[in-house]
Amino acid sequence: MGLTKQYLRYAASAVFGVIGSQKANICYVTLRGGERGRYVAVAACEHVFIWDVRKGEKVLILQGQKHEVTFLCPSPDGVHVAVGYEDGAVRIFSLLNGETSVSFNGHKSAVSVIRYDALGARLVTGSKDTDVIVWDVINESGLYRLKGHKDVITQTLFLKDKNLLVTCSKDSFVKWWDLDTQHCFKTIVGHRSEVWGLVLLNRENRLLTGSADSELRAWDISYLEEVKAEGEPKEKKGKTLLDDDEDQQEDEDESLDERILSCKKAGSILREARDRVVSLTTDSKARIIACHGNDSILELFTVLSEDEVQKKMSKKLKKAKKKAAKLQEEAGEEAAEPAVEKMLKDEIVRLINVKASAKIRCVDCLSCAGGELKVALLLQNNTVETYSLRTADKTPTANKTSRLTLGGHRTDVRTLAFSSDNLAVLSASGDTVKVWNRSTLQVIRTMACEYALCSLFVPGDRQIILGTKSGKLQMFELASGSLLETVDAHNGALWSLCLAPDQRGIVSGSADKTVKFWEFELIKDQETGQKRLTLKHTRTLQLEEDVLCVRFSPDHRLLAVSLLDCTVKVFYTDTLKFFLSLYGHKLPVLCLDISHDNTLIATGSADRNVKIWGLDFGDCHRSMFAHDDSVMFLQFVPKTHLFFTAGKDKKIKQWDADKFEHIQTLEGHHREVWCLAISPNGDHLVSSSHDKSLRLWERTREPIILEEEREMEREAEFEESMAKGDMPVVPGETQGEAAPAGKKTIETVKA
Ligand SMILES: *[C@@H]1O[C@H](CO)[C@@H](O)[C@H](O)[C@H]1NC(C)=O
Ligand SMILES: *[C@@H]1O[C@H](CO)[C@@H](O)[C@H](O)[C@H]1NC(C)=O
Ligand SMILES: *[C@@H]1O[C@H](CO)[C@@H](O)[C@H](O)[C@H]1NC(C)=O
Ligand SMILES: *[C@@H]1O[C@H](CO)[C@@H](O)[C@H](O)[C@H]1NC(C)=O
Ligand SMILES: *[C@@H]1O[C@H](CO)[C@@H](O)[C@H](O)[C@H]1NC(C)=O
């Protein structure tokens, strides 16, 4: 070993496997004048992916930085998308080139909603920090911060022709704001629980709110100033309701203190779902309402125009008159002129329910030419589905028009493997195994499998083997994409597989307290008469405890077995005689690996530590605190004494097993990292996480100086704590003072 060891940086190279993240919404966007309803934008962790739903292809990536995307909103002209992030930042991207030029920093925590005004000149954002901020898009500055809500803001809408804003929140209130004075002039208190969404209908004379129950509450809005200015009698304005005199009186009174508008409960529409509203939205003309809870049913309603309602009412009246006349005839006496009352259900009519193939996370809808409604659904199982229906049909049917599933797994990926030629990557989840082209990240094969826990490529890279939760070994052939064989290998979860160094077989370790040895064998297939690969069980090693991980030493002499009792036992491969026991971890060892030269064994445990041991005597060279949660995976970089670990703390770290140094941390995943695979040449690393993303990392030529690396980490930590503790400034908030909106950075603090 030389005097100075050079460490090379691994850099993030791609995020894949995620179709749509659950933290943000889905929205239709237009791309370079393309056809409407063809492209949708969804969050993919810190990025935004634009998918062409027709072709099922990713056509544009709006690159994020570190924090997850929490909300998306396209601009009215369709040229931009405003993106809100977990840290409260908002960036505006151009859909022409995918680049961002404007960014707004005013919120202290996740952006929960973003809306443009009708002209696209102003943006309103709501946040988990309970503030609402109005931004000037053209001047790229903050206008006002509106404080008043006491919990997460769930919706904010500009009114079209008035300088007003309506907002709702988990604090159970709906608030109306006058943007001329930046004051809340009215609070609607009729909800007993969180308000999860609101929409404006009927030229903004009707408000509909969604809450924690199955009621969609409807409110009548009358704009009082307008009425006075026009000098018209009120009856003409209040066309949505046949007010009786008493209500009229109340309105008059209210207008004295409120002057701007009155808002009265008009009734409610019942949803079929019993749980809370998860999203409530309309198409751009507010003719269709789409609503869903935490299940797979989307409920659609049609909002009838005033003319349509009038027509309906006169029909009703005619009917009633006829009936009255008939009664009169029968009774032979005078009957009163019948009265028909206009009801909410005459105005908002149930259209159809759409059943998606999994629970819905979010919906967007788009009215297109010819009365076609397009619906895009982001599902909770990493899928996007689109539907189309003709709303004018008497009994419309919703046809599924596309489904994006290919580029990702429905459930978490629990195992990854690299092919021996470094060119293909295997990922397997609860129901499918995929093989990806490492350079293009295109899916080469997708095959149904049982719940997979471990995997490997058979030498030659023509077959793969999975170990499953139910104790089976499944072998697939890549050329045909078919399952060759399922072997009932164990009576418990098959946690670990390892290829024999002589490449002639594998070993499997299971929760049934056994380790089994298998040899590859070519047999003649009964049906086809052709030779095919199979696995022959040769030996069994019985243990006292569940087996969590098994690894051969590269010289094939030893087999290390980690057990549920927190020890690792090492056996001679040939005789299966006990050789060593490694004691010391306080919780079970979930992962381990042996260095290429058979000298070191590194173990990672649920106790958050990594231990490095000599394989000659089983002496512990060093124990290092590695992650803030369980160490899930550990692997040496081939032909080195450097190794990587993956933690439930979302981090991936690289270590030097000779100098006991932490070299670098690969940050990027937003949830627990489950597993890793390092390419045989050491140039690539792929990781999988509970955030549904797979990430590819690449070894660069850039050397790492450890002191500088530590300094950078300290700075990053400091910056994070500053950002948290600091109240960002929005101009307009401090009257007359035009302080720039922005966060304190380490530069400004140092200065
Ligand atoms: C931009 O700011 C200037 C000066 O503060 C102001 O006069 C102008 O009206 C603003 N423009 C817009 C579109 O808000
Ligand atoms: C939806 O239901 C699942 C359980 O089925 C629960 O874990 C999740 O938190 C729920 N989501 C919402 C938004 O209520
Ligand atoms: C998840 O998505 C797929 C779409 O490929 C669908 O077939 C499946 O039924 C969905 N639902 C669940 C609950 O997994
Ligand atoms: C939906 O599919 C049916 C049957 O294939 C077809 O008749 C109908 O026109 C389709 N509807 C739409 C809106 O495409
Ligand atoms: C991956 O894609 C590249 C470029 O299309 C191609 O040359 C290569 O053969 C593919 N590799 C695999 C393993 O399919």
TrEMBL record:
WD repeats by residue range: 104-145, 146-187, 188-229, 406-446, 487-521, 582-623, 624-665, 666-698
Gene3D superfamilies: YVTN repeat-like/Quinoprotein amine dehydrogenase (2.130.10.10)
Gene that specifies this protein: wdr3
Alphabetized SUPFAM superfamilies for the sequence: Nucleoporin domain, Tricorn protease domain 2
Cleaved signal peptide residues: none
Name by which UniProt lists this protein: WD repeat-containing protein 3
Biased composition (Acidic residues): 243-256
CDD domains referenced in this protein's UniProt entry, alphabetically: WD40
Assembly and binders: Part of the small subunit (SSU) processome, composed of more than 70 proteins and the RNA chaperone small nucleolar RNA (snoRNA) U3.
Family recorded in the similarity comment: Belongs to the WD repeat WDR3/UTP12 family.
PANTHER family to which the protein is assigned, alphabetical: WD REPEAT CONTAINING PROTEIN 3 WDR3, WD REPEAT-CONTAINING PROTEIN 3
Segments forming a coiled coil: 310-337
Major location category of this protein: nucleus
Statement: the UniProt record of this protein carries the keyword Repeat: yes
